[in-house]
Amino acid sequence: MNDALLTLRLYEATDEDAAIELWRRTWQQHYPQIDFAARVAWWRERWRNDLVPVATIMVAERDGALVGFVTVDPKTRYLDQIVVAPEAWGSDIAATLLAEARRISPDGLDLKVNADNARAIRFYEKHGFVITGQDVNERSRAPVHVMSWRP
Length: 151
Fold this sequence. Notes:
Blueprint: E1 6-10, H1 16-30, H2 40-51, E2 56-62, E3 65-73, E4 78-84, H3 93-104, E5 109-114, H4 118-126, E6 130-136, E7 143-149
Antiparallel strand pairs: 1-2, 2-3, 3-4, 5-7, 6-7
Helix pairs in contact: 1-2
């Protein structure tokens, strides 16, 4: 990733297409065996109905391009998504978005992460999250870890 300044800003409705495409690309990179293009309509519905109405969504941009976002429901402390462009994995973007999530929800954060996503689990543990429970993804039925951070 280049050295251009990373900027954070509040999500705007005009960001929807770029955010959903970024979300799709990151999941496709992580799970290449799944056809995520077939799930775009579902993602768009989830974005519009489940996230936008309740979450504070911050987007990260470099050179005017969306390179990441984080969604946090400040009422429930639920961090639903941190998404970073695959070409920016290993950069400071995820840590910057997580710091923003902590600013939005300073009393703590809770999230669910796929149990087979070792990269994400290591990231969250590195940043003070602990596994506090187990669950199952409602859609895929895949096992997930419940992780929490408290100040």
